[in-house]
């Protein structure tokens, strides 16, 4: 999941977009740019990468679940209060998970 990592917001009108479509698509994919295409009368569309779109949809899904949001809030509170287990430097994920399973 990535959210516009350093990308910029560009604007274009329909004619410019059509003329320079490859350049705009490349900047959206390669540079994480967001492109706003204005069509007049305050109407338009936004171009974002598929990765960015999927990330937004996943965030929307997570935030729509009260149970998931409560678990996140509880986890944040636990971390704030020091109620967490950290992975040791150099410890493999497999070993960490085994160690954590033994402490529960």
From TrEMBL:
InterPro entries: Antitoxin_Phd/YefM (IPR006442), phD/YefM_antitoxin (IPR051405), YefM-like_sf (IPR036165). It comes from the Bacteria. Belongs to the phD/YefM antitoxin family. Antitoxin component of a type II toxin-antitoxin (TA) system. This is Antitoxin. It comes from Phocaeicola salanitronis (strain DSM 18170 / JCM 13657 / CCUG 60908 / BL78) (Bacteroides salanitronis).
